[in-house]
Structures are given as structure tokens and as C-alpha cells.
């Protein structure tokens, strides 16, 4: 007579066979997760000739790939906005939608990254939270390249590094030289201006214009003085209109294009010194606000803003320079009407 432990001697063996079979079927029909974990890599690790396809883990990084070499951009984070499409050649409109990290709660779409066999991503070293989560991407077999970014003075070398990573080192060098020339020429144009002589500039953000940035590198390089004081380490500040009236800036720069109509319709804004003196400027927009991310558009923004603040020191024709910039950085050969639209001169 069999004891309880010997009641069915074949059953454990059948269970093992069943589990092996289920595991085999799971692996056979699951997405092809790489058996090899991806690596964290740096500039020194860039292979000869770069990588075939590259995806940016956040929107600025992804658009920077587009700027340097759109033919090796693995995909967008989502659908392009209607206002972006006119400034991006149509053949790039329908690239795969791969997701990515951004402030609105966006996340990388792991299924799409696997389906499109994206093996290489890039993130900036100042994106600390994303770097902490990079292991999620490494588990997909993806290599993550860490580059410097987020600062205009570092931006030229970032363009050089991306040029190498995307197999277009010469183009990366050309873009980097433009960036360096932009910084040097603007700084030379506004040097020796005493701090007290610099205009107080209010940057109107948000749909009501009452949110503003506390630290703005474009404004600093272009020779402006931020009209708003903020506590240390505060990125942005929300104001009431009464507080703005007390500040009463010399210059008003409208960064959000959706605020323009509100500004024109709201008589309160006409009480500001900047309005009375004709010192209200709308930030050029194409394919996004020049004073926003990604970084390359800011090299044109510093030229534009310095010319607005100090027209007597401006040595460029903004329309011609914008046309040159859009062709070099955005792969678009625009006519005069389109350039005027970007510069808000229509």
C-alpha cells in the first residue's frame, strides 16, 4: 500500500514537463526582450559611424536628434501638433510613436520600443529622475547614452557629440560652430552695459500671462534684467496683475502664443509702461517657442531678443538670419512670408 507521499509518483514529473512547455510557449510568443541587458554609455563609448537609430527619452532630447539627423530618429513621443507640422518635412510626420518621459506624466511605451527594435536611447545628464529609471530601458536590451545638456554654453559640444552618435560628425560640427558664434556675437554686442542700464524684462508665460520664469539664460545672455525676483531655487512664479503693475517692467516679452489674444483684448495690460512705450514683443514660434525647449532654438532666440532690447547694437537682419537658421537647424527652406509669420511680423 502506498503512503500519502507516494500516492501519484508520476504527477510531479508531469508537472515539470507542463511547466517547461508553458515557459517555452511564453518565450516563443512574447515580445523579443533581449537576453542581454543594455548598458549606460558615454561620449567615449560612441562607436565608429554612430548608431543606426536613436530615440530621446524626453521631448528636448528627441527633437535634438531630429535637428542633427532626422533620418536616424527612431520615432516621436506621440502625434505631432498641428502647429509643428508646417516646420517639419512631411516624410517625418508619421514616424513610430514611442512615448517618453515628460512633465505631463508621459512614459516610454515599452511595447512600441520593443516592436520597433529600438536599441539605443539618449538622455541628458541633468535629467536625474530619468537616469534613475534608466534600468527599465536597459531591461529591454537598450543602450542609454548620457550626454551633457540643458545649458547653452554646453550645447555646442552636445551637438558635436550627437553628430558623432548619429553618424554625421561634420554636420554636428557645423551646428556647434553656429551655436558658438551666436553666443560670442551676442555677448560681444551687449558687453559693457552696466546692470543698472539693462531694461527690466517681464517674460509672460501661461495662458493668462501671469506666470513667469525666475531664471532665463536667453534673457541673461541677451543683456536683459529679469523684472521679477524669486526665492532661491524657485523655477517659476505666479503673479497677480496688481503685483505685475507694481513691478511695471520696461519690456514685456510674450512667450505663450495663446496669450496674445487675451493680451490684445484685456485693457489692463495697456496700463503697463512696456505697452505705453511700444516695448511689447511676441517670442517667435516655429516649430515651438524660441525661448522654450529644445535648446537649439535658443541660439536664434538670443540673437532675436538682443536685437529687440538693443536695436542700435544689432548687426544682423533678423529675417535673413531666421531663414538661414531654419534651413540649417530645421531642414526647411522657407519663403519670406513664412519667415515673417515665425517672427510675428504679419
Overall 3D shape: globular
Rg from C-alpha positions?
26 Å
Tally of discrete structural domains:
2
Class based on secondary structure composition and strand pairing = alpha/beta
As a percent range, the share of strand residues is: 5-15%
Quaternary state of this entry equals single chain
Biggest β-sheet strands, sense, barrel: 4 strands, parallel
Q: In angstroms, what separates the terminal alpha carbons?
A: 98 Å
**Elements, N to C (H/E):** HEEHEEHEHHEHHEEHEEHEHHEHHH
How many strand segments?
12
Mean pLDDT: 88
Question: What is shown here, in short?
Answer:
It is built from 14 helices and twelve strands. It has 346 residues and is an alpha/beta fold. The protein has two domains: 144 residues, Nitrogenase molybdenum iron protein domain (Rossmann fold); 150 residues, Rossmann fold, CATH 3.40.50.
Tell me about this structure.
The structure is a single chain. With 346 residues, this protein is of the alpha/beta class. The chain folds into two domains: 40-183, Rossmann fold; 193-342, Rossmann fold (3-Layer(aba) Sandwich), CATH 3.40.50.1980. Helix content is 40%, strand content 12%. It is built from 14 helices and twelve strands. It has helices at residues 11-29, 59-68, 110-115, 128-132, 134-138, 152-165, 169-190, 217-221, 241-247, 260-265, 273-276, 296-309, 318-330, 336-342; strands at 40-41, 55-56, 99-102, 106-108, 120-124, 143-147, 200-204, 211-213, 225-226, 236-238, 251-254, 280-282. The strands form four sheets. Strands 1-6-5-2 form a four-stranded parallel beta sheet. A four-stranded parallel beta sheet has the order 9-7-11-12. A hairpin with a 3-residue loop joins strand 3 and strand 4 (106-108). Helix 6 (152-165) runs antiparallel to helix 7, helix 7 (169-190) packs parallel to helix 12 and helix 12 (296-309) packs antiparallel against helix 13 (318-330). The protein starts with 10 loop residues before the first helix and ends with a helix. Residues 1-12 and 15-35 have low confidence and may be disordered.
Amino acid at each position: 500500500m502506498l503512503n500519502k507521499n507516494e500516492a501519484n509518483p508520476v504527477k510531479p514529473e508531469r508537472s515539470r514537463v507542463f511547466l517547461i512547455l508553458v515557459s517555452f510557449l511564453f518565450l516563443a510568443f512574447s515580445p523579443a526582450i533581449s537576453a542581454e541587458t543594455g548598458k549606460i554609455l558615454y561620449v567615449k563609448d560612441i562607436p565608429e559611424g554612430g548608431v543606426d537609430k536613436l530615440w530621446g527619452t524626453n521631448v528636448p532630447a528627441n527633437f535634438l536628434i531630429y535637428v542633427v539627423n532626422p533620418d536616424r530618429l527612431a520615432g516621436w513621443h506621440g502625434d505631432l501638433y498641428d502647429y509643428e507640422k508646417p516646420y517639419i518635412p512631411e516624410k517625418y510626420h508619421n514616424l513610430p510613436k514611442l512615448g517618453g518621459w515628460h512633465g505631463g506624466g508621459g512614459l516610454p511605451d515599452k511595447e512600441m520600443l520593443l516592436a520597433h527594435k529600438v536599441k539605443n536611447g539618449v538622455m541628458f545628464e541633468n535629467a536625474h529622475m530619468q537616469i534613475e529609471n534608466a534600468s527599465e530601458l536597459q531591461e529591454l536590451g537598450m543602450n542609454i547614452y548620457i550626454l551633457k545638456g540643458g545649458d547653452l554654453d554646453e550645447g555646442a559640444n552636445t551637438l558635436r557629440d550627437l553628430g558623432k552618435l548619429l553618424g554625421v560628425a561634420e554636420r554636428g560640427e557645423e551646428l556647434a560652430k553656429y551655436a558658438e558664434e551666436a553666443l560670442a556675437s551676442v555677448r560681444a554686442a551687449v558687453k559693457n552695459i552696466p546692470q543698472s542700464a539693462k531694461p527690466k524684462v517681464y517674460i509672460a508665460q501661461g495662458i493668462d500671462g501671469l506666470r513667469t520664469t525666475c531664471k532665463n539664460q536667453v534673457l541673461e545672455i541677451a543683456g536683459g534684467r529679469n523684472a521679477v525676483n524669486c526665492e532661491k531655487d524657485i523655477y517659476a512664479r505666479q503673479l497677480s496683475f496688481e503685483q505685475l503693475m507694481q513691478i511695471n517692467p520696461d519690456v514685456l516679452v510674450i512667450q505663450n502664443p495663446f496669450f496674445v489674444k487675451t493680451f490684445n483684448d484685456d485693457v489692463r495690460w495697456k496700463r503697463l509702461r512696456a505697452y505705453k512705450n511700444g516695448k511689447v514683443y511676441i517670442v517667435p514660434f516655429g516649430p515651438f517657442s524660441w525661448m522654450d525647449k529644445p535648446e537649439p532654438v535658443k541660439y536664434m532666440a538670443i540673437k532675436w531678443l538682443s536685437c529687440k532690447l538693443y536695436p542700435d547694437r544689432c548687426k544682423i537682419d533678423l529675417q535673413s538670419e531666421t531663414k538661414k537658421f531654419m534651413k540649417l537647424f530645421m531642414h526647411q527652406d522657407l519663403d519670406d512670408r513664412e519667415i515673417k509669420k515665425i517672427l510675428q511680423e504679419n
